[in-house]
């Protein structure tokens, strides 16, 4: 690979590192965008099957061209800026919504050594970047100069800040037992232990010793991405569509893309932190990227399943779950894990 | 010019500009957003100094949490700028005096013999496996454990005080406990009564 790329590297000279990084970024973002497009189709199909419907089946075979038709439709629509809106911030809102959900992919390890930036503080970087996601929603809601978007953005601010805390505590447990902030190290540390030596790797992953944290993380992830049953931010029965009311065309599409990109991000993070990333569940099968894709797809199915199953939460119930249930549970479990690690019964040494 | 120097000036110029706009912007929401930009660039400069833990924590805590709540409050306030600017000229002498005092102090500290390149040479670049987080954690929980615990206690007291100040029990409001609502059983709500079919003759 290195020798093959040498002539190209010579052609670009000193700008080669920047060019090569850009190529890698495109290699991550382009498949991601295709995955986002087909996740929207998968959602409609899966929920359709769960509700004994067919789902989209008109555009292309089995409706496979539906996301492309949707995209083209949104591209050609006019972008309307409301007359009382704050124009600069109105345009900045959707951009700030999608930028963090793309930037976070810089530190996601897809396979052993297959990562754009193998930084030491990868987990911290992820926490910081994902905490930026709320700005897009808040700015969009305020800049629209309209009541429903504003109410939606207020809800978003309160909800995302609340669930970030319990998510943070869940991550603290993970980094306690893997003793590293580097995501590649977190995955490789899950491949060690008594069960992994017996060839039953899936029992050594973090989900089993940290089961309460795993549940809290998945549920908080659904809340953090504003997905049903926590989608009061855009609850159409209460605030029409929340922060997206005044947006049309491509600006709306950016919010849409950001939501699904965030879903994929949370799913892949859950797989990396709790389900052993690219590690194979059993000893006799080789590790590889396909395992990570499979685990991510499973968590994504959970997202869709939850949406098809549960009715929307009432807002005070959401706040109660975040502050009065999840935060005490996670606080206690951080303490339990810390004591467990120091006791002679520790399984991480 | 070295690439690192270029990055520093790039971040520093944006940071100073954003910091100036925080105090000159007419719209309070714009001012808060410029403060976010300032924090972000400060984080970038810290990253240049190889303090990745502090840089990321700055973004996480201030940008991700504090400023969100700040915006939350600022957006809901109806701030009338003309009313705030009414006393500008009468406050100007006092304000200018405080500003000049602070400037003099800063010049005395930064320009004196304590902060020059001779007094504080650039730290050696960290090795390959150096972890800023591990280093900070070790120092915080060993050498400085008492000041650290004391600071956390002060924060806890502040939190309790804030809750105690704002907590009000209003009487006569119809409030339902979510835990009661969650625990509702079918037997408590629905009663099925068996009765004969009524016929009209």
Automatic annotation (TrEMBL), chain A:
GO molecular function: NADH dehydrogenase activity; oxidoreductase activity, acting on NAD(P)H, quinone or similar compound as acceptor; quinone binding
Pfam families assigned to the protein according to its UniProt record, in alphabetical order: NADHdh
Swiss-Prot/TrEMBL keywords: Cell membrane, Membrane, NAD, Quinone, Translocase, Transmembrane, Transmembrane helix, Ubiquinone
Enzyme kind, highest EC tier: translocase
Entry keyword annotation includes Transferase: no
GO BP annotation list: aerobic respiration
Primary localisation category: membrane
InterPro entries: NADH_UbQ_OxRdtase_su1/FPO, NADH_UbQ_OxRdtase_su1_CS
Domain of life: Bacteria
EC number: 7.1.1.-
Localization of this protein: Cell membrane; Membrane
TM annotation in the entry: 20-41, 89-110, 122-144, 165-184, 204-223, 252-276, 288-309, 321-342
GO cellular component, one term: plasma membrane
Membrane-related topology note: Multi-pass membrane protein
Catalytic activity: a quinone + NADH + 5 H(+)(in) = a quinol + NAD(+) + 4 H(+)(out)
Membership in a protein family: Belongs to the complex I subunit 1 family.
UniProt subunit comment: NDH-1 is composed of 14 different subunits. Subunits NuoA, H, J, K, L, M, N constitute the membrane sector of the complex.
Biological function: NDH-1 shuttles electrons from NADH, via FMN and iron-sulfur (Fe-S) centers, to quinones in the respiratory chain. The immediate electron acceptor for the enzyme in this species is believed to be ubiquinone. Couples the redox reaction to proton translocation (for every two electrons transferred, four hydrogen ions are translocated across the cytoplasmic membrane), and thus conserves the redox energy in a proton gradient. This subunit may bind ubiquinone.
Full protein name: NADH-quinone oxidoreductase subunit H
Organism expressing this protein natively: Thauera propionica
Gene name per UniProt: nuoH
UniProtKB/TrEMBL annotation, chain B:
Annotated TM spans: 6-24, 31-49, 55-77, 89-115, 144-167
GO MF terms, alphabetically ordered: NADH dehydrogenase (ubiquinone) activity; quinone binding
Compartment(s) of residence: Cell membrane
Reactions this protein catalyses: a quinone + NADH + 5 H(+)(in) = a quinol + NAD(+) + 4 H(+)(out)
UniProtKB keywords: Cell membrane, Membrane, NAD, Quinone, Transmembrane, Transmembrane helix, Ubiquinone
Topology relative to the membrane: Multi-pass membrane protein
A Pfam family reported for this protein in Swiss-Prot or TrEMBL: Oxidored_q3
EC number: 7.1.1.-
Record's GO cellular component terms: plasma membrane
Keyword Cell inner membrane listed: no
UniProt KW Transmembrane helix keyword: yes
Family label: Belongs to the complex I subunit 6 family.
Functional description taken from the UniProt entry: NDH-1 shuttles electrons from NADH, via FMN and iron-sulfur (Fe-S) centers, to quinones in the respiratory chain. Couples the redox reaction to proton translocation (for every two electrons transferred, four hydrogen ions are translocated across the cytoplasmic membrane), and thus conserves the redox energy in a proton gradient.
Protein name stated in the entry: NADH-quinone oxidoreductase subunit J
Organism annotation: Thauera propionica
